[in-house]
TrEMBL record:
It comes from Smallanthus sonchifolius. This is Uncharacterized protein. The lineage of its organism: Eukaryota, Viridiplantae, Streptophyta, Embryophyta, Tracheophyta.
Length: 239
């Protein structure tokens, strides 16, 4: 990793991606519901909700579970970094993204798009399956991490007792979705370029991550999706 501060990952981001969540808090090992499902950006550590008194004035990020892996809400993630082209999923009526790639038992063959970093099958027009995969690709391309990180001075937890407080591992993967209404900043960027016939290079453009040959397919995919209509019904031929 380069020594330039603009290319290095901040301490909180390195800790977030390497931390183990949902283990029992050793400080409150005798308390109920003591799993460490909160990340303190100022202390760079995982804590449980019994630890909150010592972190009241800190930036706190709620960690959730989706299909037995760590996720965060898209809304929280976008306060911290550029999450464009990271595939989002729906669980408990909330959009979430994975922190790290999930293990794969075999390569995905029936997908029109794969994660650039780990080859997991994705829906168009996504390019990454997790935040970690996007960051790894940026670092491999010698990108400036400072261009993708947002300044966030305040980050608070949802209200205790709300449906958004815990995410269970029983959540179901969102089936086919309208790709023009994806809850991700990628949607805004791509649709804007489609309407203005521009496709400029920026941190939110696919050119920042992938070869031009693959980028050229993205506008045509969106054009096909946007103009998709049902065909005329046809009667089956009589035997």
């Amino acid at each position: 990793m380069e020594s330039s501060s603009s290319q290095r990952l901040p301490a909180w981001l390195e800790s977030l991606l390497s931390e183990t969540f949902f283990n029992a808090c050793m400080v409150h090992e005798d308390a109920k519901k003591n799993e460490k499902n909160i990340f303190c950006l100022d202390c760079c550590e995982a804590i449980c909700h019994h630890c909150l008194d010592l972190h009241n004035s800190h930036r706190l990020l709620q960690i959730r579970r989706y299909v037995y892996h760590d996720v965060i809400r898209v809304g929280d993630a976008e306060k911290l970094m550029d999450c464009s082209y990271v595939q989002a999923y729906t669980t408990n009526s909330a959009k979430v993204v994975f922190l790290n790639p999930r293990p794969q038992t075999r390569a995905c063959r029936n997908s029109s798009s794969n994660c650039i970093s780990c080859e997991r099958g994705l829906q168009d027009p996504y390019l990454f399956c997790s935040i970690s995969c996007k960051i790894n690709q940026i670092m491999r391309n010698n990108g400036m991490m400072s261009e993708y990180l947002h300044k966030c001075e305040v980050l608070t937890l949802p209200e205790p007792g709300s449906d958004d407080w815990f995410m269970t591992p029983d959540s179901v993967f969102e089936p086919s979705v309208d790709r023009l209404t994806i809850a991700c900043t990628a949607t805004t960027e791509i649709v804007r370029r489609k309407r203005t016939s521009k496709f400029e290079i920026s941190p939110a453009s696919p050119e920042a991550y992938i070869p031009a040959a693959r980028v050229a397919n993205i506008p045509s995919v969106l054009e096909t999706i946007g103009n998709r209509r049902k065909g005329m019904p046809r009667r089956s031929p009589f035997n």
